[in-house]
Design a protein that fits this description.
- It contains 6 helices and 15 strands.
- By secondary structure, it is an alpha+beta fold.
- The chain has a single domain, classed as Jelly Rolls (Sandwich).
- The chain is globular, with a radius of gyration of 18 Å.
- Helices cover about 25% and strands about 20% of the residues.
- The strands form 4 sheets. It has a 7-stranded mixed β-sheet with strand order 1-10-5-12-2-14-15. Strands 3-11-6-9 form a 4-stranded antiparallel β-sheet, with no helix packed on it.
């Protein structure tokens, strides 16, 4: 019996490559975690760019989000009771009508068969994330097609790691916005064609991208790292990530820098652009 995702919702994920919004956080939790984010930004401006990837290494309250029971129950419906965090990546857009993500597939940067079984990405909103706010939008069903040709672009307005965009035409007649209210969450397949427009609303768009995998998962190309957040790990296919004892402690920063070097090699291996600050490089964005 599913705990969170109904059979119809799991069918939608398989058929369309995404789910609609699911309630995960309460209003009180949204307020508390947004306050924690804003405190982080005030106290550690030199480390804000690091929130873009592997942010679970940096602060206990970020791990606490991952261990929200309803979020874990949702992923348990997909993968069973033994779960690890693969990545927690913050994506913020100021309401200035500038920052965007072009149409792309994550499989173009990470590989179509990087992980088995198939993993999913999820977007957790800590602010209103509708079409006016630059929410994620997808092409339902496109995850069943091939990975299309992409080109990397050194564009400071792009929120993407490599500024990647699809370079061939495709059917845009069925665009579906993944509109989220604060505290809501939606899953999508990394192979789905998706993008996000600029934020022309009144508030920052704050999304936390979450990738969670079962302990029996394995990477086909390498032995990456992950953090156990529910159950036990009997397989040891992933190096265990250290839990942060304090926000941006020297140990946490050193661990993040060590892990991000390995991740950046994979993300930028075939890229024509240099790594962003959020991946240990020097290239900055409008949002930094």
């Amino acid at each position: 019996m599913p705990k969170i995702l109904s059979n119809d919702q799991q069918g939608q994920l398989e058929r369309d490559g995404h789910t609609d919004a699911v309630d995960i956080l309460t209003g009180e939790e949204v307020g508390r975690y947004r306050a924690s984010l804003e405190r982080f930004e005030r106290n550690h401006p030199e480390h804000v760019a690091k929130l873009e990837s592997k942010s679970e290494i940096l602060a206990p309250w970020i791990v606490e989000i991952a261990e929200t029971p309803r979020l874990l129950d949702l992923f348990e419906d997909l993968f069973g009771p033994n779960l690890m965090i693969r990545n927690m990546a913050w994506r913020m857009k100021k309401p200035d009508g500038r920052t965007f993500a072009g149409w792309h597939q994550d499989t173009a940067a990470y590989g179509a068969n990087e992980m088995t079984p198939k993993y999913y990405l999820g977007a957790l909103a800590l602010s209103d994330c509708g079409p006016d706010d630059g929410c994620i939008q997808v092409i339902p069903g496109s995850h069943k097609g091939p990975t299309l040709p992409h080109q990397d672009r050194d564009d400071t307005a792009s929120i993407l790691a490599r500024g990647q965009e699809i370079t061939v035409s495709f059917d845009k007649s069925r665009i579906a916005p993944l509109a989220l209210k604060p505290g809501q969450f939606a899953l999508f397949d990394p192979a789905i064609i998706h993008s996000s427009g600029v934020n022309s609303g009144q508030d920052r768009r704050i999304i936390l991208l979450i990738s969670m995998i079962p302990t029996f998962a394995r990477s086909i190309t390498a032995k990456p790292s992950a953090m156990l957040v529910r159950g036990i790990d009997e397989f040891h296919n992933f190096a265990q990530e250290p839990r942060p004892e304090a926000e941006c402690s020297p140990e946490a920063i050193a661990a993040w820098e060590r892990l991000i070097r390995s991740k950046a090699k994979a993300v930028y291996a075939k890229s024509s652009v240099a790594p962003k600050a959020g991946y240990g490089g020097a290239r900055s964005l409008l949002v930094d």
